[in-house]
Design a protein that fits this description.
By secondary structure, the protein is α/β, with parallel strands linked by helices. Helices cover 48% and strands 13% of the residues. The strands form 2 sheets. Strands 2-1-3-4-5-6 form a 6-stranded parallel sheet, with helices on both faces.
Amino acid sequence: MKARSSLGRIALAGAAVALMGVAYGVSRARKRAAQLARRAQDPTHKPELCLLSVADSVPGQGVGSAYVEHLNLLRTLGAQDFTVRVNEGASTADVVHLVSIDPVSYLRMRFTQRPTIASAHFVPDTFNGTIRLPWPINKLFMGYVLHLYRSADYVHTVHPSTVGTLAKLGVDPTRVFCVPNVISAEGFRPLPQDEREALRERWGLPKDAFVAIGSGQVQLRKGVKTFAEVARALPDMHFVWAGGFSFGPLTEGYEELKQLVENPPANLHFVGIIPREEMNGLLNASDLFFLPSYGEQFSMSILEGAFAGLPVLLLNTDEVMYKEVYGDAVLRGGSVEDFVGTIERLRDDPDFYALCARRARGLVERYSSERLYARWKEIYERALKREALPEGAGATA
């Protein structure tokens, strides 16, 4: 009898807790509905955007930089159109935009009743060669990421080719749109010659040397080994790599790359992860942006180099979809020999150097903050009304 009585009390307590939970949920829903109704009647109300992200918690990686730049875009050009909140107000915001793929942000997006956007900053093809995970964990992780993309009302990608990739992975292509990463022209720009000379001294670079810089995480897919091979082939020039092991020993090829970082050629300087606010100075202390990566979508670092006024030299391979994004604004090479020849010509031919730098600077207008904000404004306004994406939304700028 005592056991039955105890079980009865436990059951009653459980029922009471459940009823309290239901009542709390109903109360929250009513408050949320009332808040939205008041907002709809307020002519001065600006639509609220909630960005869900922990992307800037891991230093030295592109998704974090992209998030910082996007937030800056919304808080400057978008200030008159939207109220922007970060990691708060997901239940009452007019649009919820998930930027990072952490579980907490995903759950907040998943259980909101508001229109949702998920940024697809990577797919399996670009994830390979980045982080080394055991096969079962890798499969589980990618399954989670794809489920996250499929759960959103709209999916954002930075490269048009990803639209087709996502479609093959089960994401409805009519819900996918492309807006490239944005770079602030105030944060990345050419500096006067006297400042550049002072920056060379600060970074310990010879005043008259030709300096090539690459940036990004130290990863196999970034082409760091090729970067080192080119440095060995050009011992009279200097090479700088800005970036480190953002994910530590999980980085694909960590042991081999760690050996290279600790024992580089004499003319190659690994300077580690540099604060974003110092990158423009380091770029201006250099003569060329060189990134022989074979696994990019829309690299922030390439635009940073171009915005800083440097010629840009990239890997030319079918696996890299640069032609559609950069056109003739960048130089390309398919081998160490190609890179060596192009870099020597840039050093020895001032007219060729000026032409290549001018072409790269053309990307400043093509990917200007004003142009990209106009596209984001249209997307957010359509999301507010849960409207279909405009025709051609999957194409790049």
